[in-house]
Amino acid sequence: MPAQVQVPPPSRPVSRRRPRPGAHIFSGNPRSITVAFLVFTITVCGATMLSWSISYSYNQLHGIALLVVSERLAQWWPLTVYGPWLVAGLSILRASVQNRTARRSWAVMLLASGTAVALCVGQTPGSVLAMVVVGIPPITALVCFRELVGQFSSRYGPRHAADGVHGTKQP
Question: Which parts pass through the membrane (predicted)?
């Protein structure tokens, strides 16, 4: 019998394409999975604390308004403080995603938070503990919001409006 020649199986051509950046971000890299999980956890915790802080302060401001106006008006009155706060927050998030600054929106956010603190602390019985209990939630809301914005910010600095006019780009 003649010797049989073994023919190797047909091989597939080797792909010479470079993988797209970010195409396989979670495939086999446990560090990226851990980082993604941490970012998600921080975001959820920050959003939870933010919503709790706003709802607590909202109830405080509602109680303050009840001292002066009717129940019907008092239920909406806290929006005069937290309405600009929320709109400024959305502007800051948009600016953060677009790598732009939001100085005016941060000023509105600080002013609204300061107003909420002043109104809540102004109606306390005068003990330091009572002032801390009602004054911290608006501050906590501001801090939590700042941390949430940090989750959406890029690692590069903000791109100012002047960069688009002069044609310069940051690296």
Answer: 33-54, 74-93, 105-124, 130-149
Residue-wise pLDDT for 112-133, tens only, equals: 999 988 888 888 887 888 888 8
Residue 47: CA count within 13 A, CB half-sphere: 7
Those residues whose C-beta lies under 8 Å from the C-beta of residue 42, and which sit 6 or more positions away, are: 147, 151
Q: Which two tokens stand for residue 91?
A: 């502007």
Alpha-carbon distance of 130 to 141, in angstroms, equals 18
Answer for the pair 115, 99: CB distance below 8 angstroms, yes or no: no
Cα–Cα distance list, 130 to 114, 115, 133, 134, 145 (Å): 17, 17, 5, 6, 24
Q: Which residue matches tokens 């306390």? A: 124
Under 8 Å between Cβ of 151 and 92: no
User: Tokens 């308004």 label which residue?
Assistant: 65
